[in-house]
């Protein structure tokens, strides 16, 4: 199943308390660019459990309701691990532009996971733009991606 960004579908986004400030800015930034955004929370800096927000974000992408997803937490490891429990999700942890491009080109990622405590907001925005605009290369990478599923 190849992911291709579909601007007619919403972008799913979720975060824990460590990523909520970035998420709030990103939701507005994406909306200002004309994209519909489906925000799965959290909405405050009160301590929460990241799976409570990563699972519904991933489920929205997996079902096809949303075109792709954005997840944020302190390190982005927790949300990436959680999202990748979903059979048809390939969530990539990104901390620089080249990684955001490569998770799309080589891994056909459909969720970008951003470590809010380790990247500046402008870099997060650039990574999302790169993620959205980079196509999957297919070829030898498709063979590898097709071996990821356990079922």
TrEMBL record:
The active site is at 73 (proton acceptor), 106 (proton donor). InterPro entries: RpiB, RpiB_LacA_LacB, RpiB_LacA_LacB_sf. GO terms for molecular function: ribose-5-phosphate isomerase activity. GO terms for biological process: D-allose catabolic process; pentose-phosphate shunt, non-oxidative branch. Keywords: Isomerase. D-ribulose 5-phosphate binds at residues 16-17, 74-78, 107, 117, 140, 144. Coiled coil: none annotated. It holds the Pfam family LacAB_rpiB. Belongs to the LacAB/RpiB family. This is Ribose 5-phosphate isomerase B. It comes from Hydrobacter penzbergensis.
